[in-house]
Amino acid sequence: MTKRTSAKYKIDRRMGENIWGRPKSPVNRRDYGPGQHGQRRKQKLSDFGTQLRAKQKLKGYYGDLTEKQFRRIYAEAERIKGDTGENLIGLLERRLDAVIYRAKFVPTVFAARQFVNHGHITVNGQRVNVPSYRVREGDVIAIRDKSKQLAIVLEAVALAERDVPDYLEVDHSKMTATFVRTPALGDVPYPVQMEPNLVVEFYAKN
């Protein structure tokens, strides 16, 4: 299990954006970075800085993956035929923790990782406790019967701040979700603009 070493809202403030669209994000009140130097005048970013920021934002959105994990996913996206940026988004969205979050079974992507780790999820009837598990089209993801009434699940289902995307078919009465298809960038309901093309440029030069 990857240890998250920084508070999740620090990622928001470092980026200056509410990257998960959460109403409690401090960016809604303070749009400058954390720390004693956070209110310094923002300098124009270089091309490298812009690309690095795009990479850090996308990586942070999926639960602040480690650089090693993220680079491995990128390398796989590069090997697949087609647009590398689109492939990267597709691979990230096929992570089991991302699917659990998109299905509104949990309130945050961080909670999704923990929820999977604790064995609350099945894929096609088999318990899976690996957040990075790669879901395939047609897979049925479900919350185990003994976990359906957990407070975290009931809270997430009631959230009005985000909708279930159309590449998932979700039945909240049964707590099941079917992964219909791998999404493209335009299908993913990011609260802020993600720029995988800049991520591709970053790794191409570094």
User: Tally of extended strands?
Assistant: 5
Q: For the CA atoms, what is the radius of gyration? A: 17 Å
Shape by Cα distribution? globular
Compressed to H and E, one letter per element, the order equals HHHHHHEEEHEEH
Distance between the termini: 27 Å
- Helix/strand-derived category reads alpha+beta
Supply the number of helical segments: 8
Largest sheet: 5 strands, antiparallel
Strand order of the largest sheet: 2-1-3-5-4
pLDDT < 50 runs, ≥5 residues: 1-6
Task: Summarize the amount of helix as a percent range.
Answer: 25-40%
Give the amount of beta strand, in percent: 5-15%
> Average pLDDT value?
86
Family: Belongs to the universal ribosomal protein uS4 family.
Function: With S5 and S12 plays an important role in translational accuracy.
Keywords: Ribonucleoprotein, Ribosomal protein, RNA-binding, rRNA-binding
Domain RNA-binding S4: 94-158
Outline of the structure:
By secondary structure, the chain is α+β, with helices and mostly antiparallel strands.
